[in-house]
Structure to design on (427 residues):
């Protein structure tokens, strides 16, 4: 449970808020690279309660500027790409990717008025299949070189989906190792029979529904261990991570040895909606991108929201529940289960009313990490985990995997044993 003040601190992210200052200290993803290809159309973007336009100029350089023209406010995402920038349709003012005014038809030639015009612009970079922006004060840190962004291009793909609730609800669902034994329980094996028991339940979730949880602070955030005793006697450990300030890396349910995992970022559009970015990654083999594109095409609408949504009650099917095909009656697409869970908590979950139990130690730790970071910044310090030296941008303590561990071993001991053997980003 949080006090109202604490809940506001970690959920309010508009300009000038402490939570917004924290999130603005890091690069944030705003679109997938596929959404803004070379020659692509300008795209309205809402992030951290600011309305912006992402565009490529006529030299294909990326720019991120205010959505509303600084002249009299028309929407610049309708603008023309020409003459080295984006030109407003209303009276033809022209701006470059850095927000400089290049042309004001009808105004004096000396350009003095042009120079007076202030137009919001932020630096942007295309990296890891995603376009990132930096909205903070001062010099931008580095975009973190996690392997799910720097590995071979054929091994990774990124997607974006909009979820209609506060960003922290998305982040918390992704760090919560306990809910998978319920919300995501499926039967009727589809892909990998090793993952399923004789009743068709995913045995990695259903054999032991109360995982033993452990947490460790790391250079980049929090490492999360969930240990389950399988009916076979094996000790099944899942190692996920929280990454400052709004990232996670959940691992899937393939049987060990695990060959991939996901990176996720939960980026506020405003305080009542956010974008969930997924970086799907295999470290040792190419990804079946067509499979993933089809899965997203089937489950995410043209408006970038899940097909299953509040307006259609997430298309819940109680016959599916009765047959025990799925625990939740919400189909087999796991992100839609999470969307149901987090969107129905309310636009901004009132954490003064919750009752956290012993399975919530990860939630408590992640909130503490966020509140500590905000406190550190309020005291004049820098946000945690910022990287400025390219040589340090390597994350030697980063591991995301699932494995069978030895009897008597726990998560932290396992990490010590395999650290260094975990596959690094493919060159
Ligand atoms: S409102 Fe954009 S040029 Fe006038
Ligand atoms: Fe989930």
């Amino acid at each position: 449970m949080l006090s109202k003040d604490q809940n506001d601190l970690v959920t309010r992210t508009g300009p000038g808020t402490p939570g917004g200052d924290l999130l603005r200290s890091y690069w944030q993803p705003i679109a997938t690279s596929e959404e803004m290809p070379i020659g692509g159309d300008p795209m309205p973007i809402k992030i951290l309660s600011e309305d912006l336009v992402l565009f490529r100029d006529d030299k294909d350089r990326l720019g991120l500027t205010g959505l509303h023209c600084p002249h009299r406010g028309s929407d610049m995402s309708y603008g023309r790409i020409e003459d080295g920038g984006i030109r407003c349709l209303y009276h033809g003012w022209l701006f470059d990717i850095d927000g400089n005014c290049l042309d004001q038809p009808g105004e004096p030639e000396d350009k003095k008025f042009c120079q007076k015009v202030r137009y919001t612009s932020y630096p942007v970079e295309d990296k890891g299949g995603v376009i990132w922006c930096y909205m903070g004060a001062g010099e931008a840190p580095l975009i973190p070189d996690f392997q799910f962004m720097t590995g071979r291009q054929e091994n990774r793909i990124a997607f974006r989906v909009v979820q209609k609730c506060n960003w922290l609800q998305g982040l918390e669902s992704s760090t919560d190792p306990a809910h998978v034994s319920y919300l995501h329980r499926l039967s009727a094996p589809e892909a990998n029979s090793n993952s399923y028991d004789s009743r068709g339940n995913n045995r990695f979730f259903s054999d032991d529904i109360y995982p033993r949880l452990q947490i460790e602070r790391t250079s980049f955030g929090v490492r999360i261990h969930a240990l389950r005793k399988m009916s076979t006697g094996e000790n099944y450990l899942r190692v996920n991570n929280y990454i400052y300030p709004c990232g996670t890396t959940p691992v899937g349910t393939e049987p060990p040895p695990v060959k991939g995992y996901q990176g996720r970022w939960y980026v506020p559009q405003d305080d009542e909606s956010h974008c969930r970015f997924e970086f799907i990654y295999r470290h040792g083999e190419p990804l079946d991108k067509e499979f993933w594109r089809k899965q997203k095409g089937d489950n995410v609408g043209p408006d970038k929201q899940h097909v299953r949504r509040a307006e259609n009650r997430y298309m819940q099917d109680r016959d599916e529940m009765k047959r025990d095909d799925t625990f939740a009656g919400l189909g087999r697409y796991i992100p839609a289960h999470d969307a149901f869970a987090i969107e129905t908590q309310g636009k901004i979950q009132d954490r003064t009313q919750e009752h956290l139990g012993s399975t919530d130690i990860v939630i408590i730790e992640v909130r503490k990490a966020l509140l500590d970071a905000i406190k550190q910044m309020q005291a004049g310090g820098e946000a945690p985990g910022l990287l400025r030296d390219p040589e340090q941008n390597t994350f030697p303590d980063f591991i995301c995997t699932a494995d069978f561990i030895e009897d008597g071993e726990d998560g932290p001991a396992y990490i010590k044993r395999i650290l260094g053997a975990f596959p690094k980003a493919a060159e």
